[in-house]
Amino acid sequence: MPKKTAQTLTRVYELVVTFTARDQRLFWHVEEKDRVRLLKVFDDRTEHRLYELGGSEGLECLVNTAHIRRINVLDYVGGIEFEAETELTEKESLKKLQERETSDEPVIVRLWLRGEKEPVVHQEIEYAEWCLARTCLIEREKFIQLDDEDGEEVLYGTDHINAIEMIDPFYLEENQVEKLLGRYDQAEGADDTAPTESPAPAAPPS
Q1: Nearest to residue 105, comparing CAs of 134, 87, 128?
Q2: Any idea where the domains of the chain sit in the sequence?
Q3: How many CB atoms lie within 10 A of CB 202?
Q4: CA dihedral 28, 30, 35, 40 (to 10 degrees)
Q5: Of the candidates 136, 204, 197, the residue with the CA atom closest to the CA atom of residue 167
């Protein structure tokens, strides 16, 4: 009889990020390991930067630590533990990356810019274009370039980015994408602790 593999359990946390000079807050969900990593970042006396929050497959978010006024770290489901995402082997990760790179499916990028009330949404960004922009952000370049829906180049000064989200329909169901795009329409006027729609974590083991 095959040996049963032990399940790794984790908690899910909701981050409610408040930026300086912006009323609208950003909501994001992370597992325990990403919560610990986040807290360690703010313990360090390093320079401000665009920091990757972590998250589920098909979702990425970087926040500008220099623009953050407050982050509420909320126990999303009252301490219930869920099965953590399985860590892929190097071979599995490479195969998944190759599958993604050969797909024509575009990604959606949502930018939160300092001084602008509403986020800017790019609906049709090539995956390679996003990867280049993310690398520029991590390496602290002064500008990133994204093409708009008319194919025209738009340059964004990275010092003015509060946050940038990437939603990848390659990994997500259509209804999940719709909920994520409508998240802030639904969240307007909501309570700080109100949960927002996002891909649900795996069901807890019985």
Answers
A1: 128
A2: 10-187
A3: 13
A4: -70
A5: 197
Instruction: Read off the pLDDT of residues 113-172 as tens digits, 9 standing for 90 and up.
Output: 999 999 999 999 999 999 999 999 999 999 999 998 888 999 999 999 999 999 999 999
Residues contacting 54, CB < 8 A, separation 6+? 30, 31, 33, 34, 37, 38
Q: What are 44-71's pLDDT values in tens digits? A: 666 788 999 988 889 999 999 999 999 9
3-state secondary structure the chain: CCCCCCCCEECEEEEEEEECCCCCCEEEEEEHHHHHHHHHHHHCCCCCCEEECCCCCCEEEEEEHHHEEEEEEEECCCCCCEECCCCCCHHHHHHHHHHHHCCCCCEEEEEEECCCCCCEEEEEECHHHHHHHHHHHHCCCCEEEEECCCCCEEEEEHHHEEEEEEECCCCCCHHHHHHHHCHHHHHCCCCCCCCCCCCCCCCCCC
Q: 150: burial class by Cβ within 10 Å (0-12, 13-18, 19+)?
A: exposed
Cα–Cα distance measured from residue 90 to residue 51, given in angstroms and rounded to the nearest whole number: 24
